[in-house]
Automatic annotation (TrEMBL):
GO molecular function: ligase activity
Record-linked InterPro entries: Allene_oxi_cyc_Dirigent, Dirigent
Swiss-Prot/TrEMBL keywords: Apoplast, Ligase, Membrane, Secreted, Transmembrane, Transmembrane helix
Family indicated by similarity: Belongs to the plant dirigent protein family.
Natural source organism: Davidia involucrata (Dove tree)
Record-annotated membrane-spanning stretches: 21-40
Record's protein name: Dirigent protein
Length: 211
């Protein structure tokens, strides 16, 4: 009986001690959890939360957006020893629209319609004859400027050009240098086309929003 009484008393003390410790352990656990949560960045606040973060655009030098208009002449030279066009695929013999042909270009961009006028840049990229119903080009070009403060900056044009339409339009999809975040469009009209050689001079009016 005495032994049973001592065992019961010891068990009671153990239970009471555990009961007193539980609130402290629970409080400690809650405190640690709050600290961990507070250390995890919140995406809604724009804080760094991995591989992406929001930044102030002024840190990139981006201030008020402006609209600029450039008028350039694009010279596509197929003939002669100074050709600026290289075909990389040939069209099917059955195609009346040269469907499937792809040309890589490094065309001069000048201030005036004459090739001898001031060089302001080069149109570098390619165009593909991408229509079976008409002579329609898919054009992808960087207008790489070499003149004045725009030297080293580019405007990127990507779009559809149905060449026998009097006025065509393609989008400006971006740029670099002074044309970072560029957007806008180009209007195109043929200034001169030599049906024998295939050489062409085309007027480009570029309307571009940029910082």
């Amino acid at each position: 009986h005495t032994t049973l009484s001592k065992s019961t008393t010891s068990l009671t003390h153990t239970v009471l001690s555990m009961a007193r410790l539980l609130p402290n352990a629970l409080s400690h656990f809650i405190t640690i959890s709050i600290l961990i949560i507070s250390l995890v960045p919140n995406p809604a606040t724009g804080e760094n939360h991995g591989f992406v973060k929001a930044i102030n655009r002024k840190k990139l030098g981006l201030r008020k957006e402006k609209l600029s208009h450039f008028r350039l002449y694009w010279h596509d030279i197929i003939s002669g020893s100074n050709a600026t066009v290289v075909p990389v695929t040939q069209a099917s013999n059955k195609s009346a629209t040269a469907f499937g042909q792809i040309n890589v270009i490094d065309d001069p961009l000048t201030e005036g319609p004459e090739l001898s006028s001031k060089l302001v840049g080069r149109a570098q990229g390619f165009y593909a004859l991408a229509s079976q119903q008409e002579v329609g080009l898919l054009m992808a070009m960087n207008f790489a400027f070499v003149e004045g403060k725009y030297n080293g900056s580019t405007i990127t044009v990507l779009g559809r050009n149905p060449v026998f339409n009097k006025l065509r339009e393609m989008p400006v999809i971006g740029g670099s240098g002074l044309f970072r975040f560029a957007r806008g469009y180009v209007q195109i009209k043929t200034h001169k086309f030599d049906i024998t050689s295939g050489d062409a001079t085309v007027e480009y009016n570029i309307y571009v929003m940029h910082y």
